[in-house]
Amino acid sequence: MTYKLIALDMDGTLLGKNKTISDQNEKWIRAAVKAGVKVTLATGRPIRDVIGYVRQLEIDCPLVINNGSEVWKSPDVLHSRRELSPQLIAGIFEVLRECGDEFDYWAHSIGGKIDKSNAPADPTTVRWLQFAIRSGNAELLQLIRDRLAAWNAFEISNSHLTNIECNAIGVTKATGLLEVCSLIGIEMSQVMAVGDSLNDIPMIRAAGLGVAMGNAQEPVKQAADVIAPTVHEDGVAKMIERYIFS
Asked: 0.90 cut: is pTM over it?
């Protein structure tokens, strides 16, 4: 199979603990682009936290942002957006008020990041894209997840073992990546998708080649076609070298 698009998760996949792109990863991404392969970022981050990396790599491809809630044709041009219901977010706040204080949360809205420091008095006045809850208390986190999952109103995933992330129902990195494929005129079978967390599973399953990082959560490895070396071993670079150039 000739892969025409490489879809990369960012944190834990492209980026290590220092949140930088290694020399080897950059080298092989640039080599792929020079060879005519498109590269996109498929991330839970908001667009403002992605632009710098896009410019560093000189990526010229639509982007999957906020776990698929947004697809951007370029860092300056929005293609599509799927928002969360403000009433559902108000419901999340009600659940959190009942759960003590062993948690933190953050959300991405059209107006910017929201957390405990700037929480709105009325959540229904905000246009929400993604809502995430973090806790070192695994039992509490599971309890919150179970309560929200019972509503059948969210796509619930994570980007780390200590958090859960909520997007609108039917919104995943896979749906975002499908839009990217449509924009550039290729099939999902021509995509190599690489990730490490639960929010990466849909695109890993949907892609022609689904790759889990060596540091990925176990369910991600089970969903993948192949397992790469870890992020600290330049797993992205090694997968590009192997599957694009060999």
From this structure: yes
